[in-house]
Amino acid sequence: MDRILFLDEVAERLRRTPAQLRWMLHTGSAPKSAMIAGRRCWRESDVEKFIADAFADAQS
User: Fold this and answer.
1) Alpha-helical regions (H) of the chain
2) DSSP 38
3) Alpha carbon separation from 51 to 9, 23, 37, 60 (Å, rounded)
4) Topology annotation, domain 4-59
């Protein structure tokens, strides 16, 4: 089962500030996320896929 990550954890994993991750959400360039109980959450696998896809696109 996936771990559920919150904004600060995802920002740290992406090496961005929380404000930069919020901007990515605003512009639609952040990993797939959901609102659960009023908090923005990410599945760990979606964050890892986002990173892997970025590297795959760079190889093309």
Assistant:
1) 7-14, 18-27, 44-59
2) T
3) 14, 17, 26, 15
4) Multidrug-efflux Transporter Regulator; Chain: A; Domain 2 (1.10.1660)
* Residues linked to residue 36 through DSSP beta bridges, in sequence order: 39
Q: 11, 21 in Cβ contact below 8 A? A: yes
pLDDT in tens, the chain (60 residues): 899 999 999 999 999 999 999 999 999 999 999 999 999 999 999 999 999 999 998 876
**Spatial distance between the Cα atoms of 18 and 33, rounded to a whole number of angstroms:** 14
Alpha-carbon distances of 36 from 10, 41, 51, 57, rounded to whole Å:
15, 7, 23, 30
